[in-house]
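Lab manual, section 2.4: Encoding a predicted structure.

Procedure: take the sequence of the chain (155 residues), apply the prediction step described in section 2.3, and record the output as structure tokens. A sample record is shown.
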Amino acid sequence: MDLAKFSKSKFFTTLLIAIPAVILLLAAFRLGVFVGHHKARFSDEWGGTYERTFIGPRKGFHGVFSDGGFMNEYGTAGAIVKIEGDNLIVSGRDNLEKSVLVSTSTIIRMYQNSLRPADLRAGQQVTVIGSPNTQGQIEAKFIRLLPEGRGMMSR
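Recorded output:
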């Protein structure tokens, strides 16, 4: 077979176009599998911690509305039990403790006053709004510090 004649043939030109196209298609497929795998893994991990994050281990999924209350989908309210660095432990309804992560972007307020994380103390009543992470913690977006004697646990 003459190599010069083969390299100028229509078959060779088609082969030069088809091989990179197939490689690109396989790479796109692999990228799709990679993204889908990570989405599914996150969904599975988040689903596994959903009950612990929002309802708590003692209540379970059934009987959530038995006390007339609603689930705390994206937050909690109660007394600060412990502060460990950027992590607050908040004891809410039924003494269920929630782990709350405070970041530099977390807004902390009492009335109209802005506070810093260093202003928070154990025993204070807070309301936390945030989003759950895969470890069952609440990543705080907003924390409202309640005045003494006005918290949920003082009723």
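Check your result against the sample. Residues 75-154 form a domain with the OB fold (Dihydrolipoamide Acetyltransferase, E2P) fold (CATH 2.40.50.140).
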